[in-house]
# Entry
Amino acid sequence: MPYCEVDRYQAGDKWEGVRLFYRRYGRGATKVLLVIGLAGTHDSWGPQIRGLTGSMEPADGGDVPEPAARTDEEAAAPATATAPEEEDVGEGIEVCCFDNRGVGRSTIPPHKSYYS
# Structure
């Protein structure tokens, strides 16, 4: 599953950081980052993704199963790195959207103070 690992920002905590779930759609030289608002998930961008890329097929894999409940230790585990893909060329658009902290498939911080 595609996750972006973010290190902790408060020293001395057992909690090691957050994992932000993201999804990429389409391919091309033009890059678009969609940032959702309050309590929305990456899935909320469906109509815009289809309009920009012409497809709802993820560029970084197929369907992702719903995650099981995670412990603090599992949430802080490093993600597996993937090999860089070929250089994007052409007139297409690549879209990236993500779930904010505490929403969707991203890590839920253990304390309210960890939200910004």
About this structure: The beta strands are 3-7, 17-25, 30-34, 93-98. The chain has one domain: 3-114.
